[in-house]
Design brief:
Distance between the termini: 82 Å
Order of helices and strands: HHHHHHHHH
Shape: elongated
GO molecular function: protein-containing complex binding
Strand content: under 5%
Number of strands: 0
Organism: Pantoea alhagi
Structural class: mainly alpha
Protein name: Ancillary SecYEG translocon subunit
Number of helices: 9
Subcellular location: Cell membrane
Oligomer: single chain
Pfam families: TPR_21
């Protein structure tokens, strides 16, 4: 670090600095202003794009009808084209339509795709729960258990325990099912869910 003995030397040093670097500073200021303007434009563009995507999502899903293949295709294209939360929500909506049509493989594929398209932990949890239920319907208990293992957060403990119990029971593991439901009952579950799990445990004998 350069040390100056008095104020005059500091002033002279500043003059030399601006004389030697004035052009570079001017360019830097211009670039800085340009970058700020660019950032503001980009932010505004992102906000506009997000609103447009949201509106498009609402439009497509409002028209979604399992009996009309063209609406399914439109939502599927939207989900494929949008690797974001709206794309994930579209996959979730589409999966429900496929479940209603008993096209479980297509529903599972949509959910797996949607899970990859969002970073929202709660949305991922919901999609994984639905995926696990579908896998149970497909007699894929081991896959369902793996899916349940990926769900984190105490808020999901009871629902995960309920489905886990079903998966274990389908494998013939009655004690495992009992333990899962017991854990669900001991968690912060709703009274209705606790009662349902208790009934399942009672039915085990």
């Amino acid at each position: 670090m350069e040390v100056y003995s008095n104020e005059n030397e500091q002033v002279d040093a500043l003059r030399r600095f601006f004389a030697n670097n004035g052009k570079a500073l001017a360019v830097g200021v211009v670039l800085g202003i340009g970058a700020l303007a660019g950032w503001r434009y980009w932010s505004g563009h992102e906000d506009t794009s997000a609103r447009e995507v949201s509106a498009h999502y609402q439009q497509l899903t409002s028209a979604l009808d399992g009996s009309k293949p063209q609406t399914l295709e439109a939502v599927a294209k939207f989900a494929n084209d949008n690797s974001n939360t709206y794309g994930a929500l579209a996959s979730l909506d589409l999966a429900k339509q496929y479940v209603d049509k008993n096209e479980l493989a297509k529903a599972a594929t949509q959910l797996q795709s949607g899970i990859k398209h969002t970073q929202n932990a709660n949305l991922q949890a919901v999609m994984n729960l639905r995926l696990a239920r579908i896998q149970l319907q497909q007699k894929q208990a081991d896959e369902a258990l793996k899916t349940l293992d990926s769900i984190k957060g105490e808020g999901w403990t009871a629902i995960v325990a309920d489905i886990r119990g079903e998966a274990l029971l389908s494998k013939g593991n009655k004690q495992g099912a009992r333990d899962a439901w017991s854990k669900g009952i001991d968690s912060e579950a709703s009274p209705a869910l606790k009662e349902m799990m208790q009934m399942k445990m009672n039915n085990l004998g």
